[in-house]
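Training component of the fellowship. As part of building independent skills, the fellow (R.M.) carried out the full modelling exercise for a liganded target. The chosen ligand was uridine-5'-diphosphate. The inputs are recorded below so that the supervisory panel can assess the work.
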Amino acid sequence: MNVEFQPLDPRRLGPIIGPERLTRLLEVATRTRERLDGRRVVNVNSTATGGGVAELLHMLLGYARGAGISTEWAVIHGDPEFFAITKRIHNRLYGTPGDGGSLGEDERRRYERTLATNVESLLRTVRPDDVVVVHDPQPAGLVPALVERGARVVWRCHVGIDRSNEWTEQAWDFLRPYVATAHAHVFSRAAFAPSFIAPETLAVIAPSIDPFAPKNTTLSPARRREILSGAGLLAGAGKRGPRVRRAEVVREGLPLSPDTPLVVQVSRWDRLKDMAGVLQGFVEHVPTEGAQLVLAGPAFSSVADDPEAEAVWRETVDRWHGLDSGDRARVQLALVPMDDPLENALVINALQRQAAVVVQKSLAEGFGLTVAEAMWKSRPVVGSAVGGIADQLVDGVSGVLVDDPRDLRAFGKAVARLLDDPGERRRVGRNARRRASTHFLPDRHLLDFAFLLQQIAA
Ligand code: UDP
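Fellow's submitted model of the complex:
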């Protein structure tokens, strides 16, 4: 239940963020430690690997611990039935029906029953003076028990949509009795907060990425080709990286030459990431000669809280089979193993760096870590103007936004324009790197969180 993670020394950020930003970070860390006065910060979510939240917590909690803040991380357990209900809530918070099932009293009973089996062991770890940060809908039902225990409780929601609809209303009706009792509520964007959240308990904090994580560290062109050839995504370029196993790749013909211009989307196999739409938009509206699309996501058996992954992967493969042979030869689909996080991170890093254009054609998105990762790597990103992505990319400056995420023609046009113009790719990529450096690095995120902790500890 407890997740092991390594402390990360915030001083290592110095060479990237510069002395001024580092000094401020260290000062605020000291003040926060004093205010917390020995209280621990315990985080609770539903998975230690796979997807943005797990990715984020390794980094954020690592730096918090490295800054001397006593930080813990616990993961709840659930069975497939529980995760089917929480996935339904997740989809509805994004304004979509998901599997179309109900969120009534039966579901509530099942949801609470699973959380009741987690509460005992959690309450054995949580002390009355702890600050507990509960992430997302899966463990949200634990909030009242933690409040009752005497902890100061923050509920942090990483998902959301700008305008509510009947589906979001259903999800909020379900969650409200639990999350309304928290002392503070964190959203990645103010518009994601439902109306019952009192403004004085609301904090808006966007996520960030770690420039030193294996997912983001610099890789030489030779090293990244070596990794991608080891993973079976590019044709052999000399020796194979020792750590990298083959991904499961669906393609026609041989692995690609390293000189092929790649369009890449990296995502969980989730319908809201619209991998099938990327595929269709690319083959129908990106005429660029020689360009190839790579859709990569985690080997699904490894993401316990994502029950739809396998079905979405199969749907995407079916779409690929439905293409005519010329189009099939322009697209590859890859399942990247997740059981070795370092290996997975290296493959994703290499793929993002190898991309001529990175795309994130989500139908809804809280905040795209994949977008921030690509921006940090100076890649031009074409993203849907939904949720957090609309804040992350400044259209025409540090990325390209497509207003309607279902407009395949506009999507294809934006991608083709970048593919056909290397100068524009470089310009947008440079601006993206600058923007990521100002807004999406850990010091900004840690400062935001530190101020919240100071308030809540007061
Ligand atoms: N990711 C990964 N391997 C994969 C697919 C995704 O490591 O095969 C990572 C990706 O690099 C990013 C995170 O998972 O760090 C996804 O976060 P994002 O915010 O983009 O989407 P979420 O999964 O939270 O909806």
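The panel noted the following from the submitted structure. The first strand starts at residue 41 and ends at 45. The chain has two domains: 10-208+441-457, 221-439.
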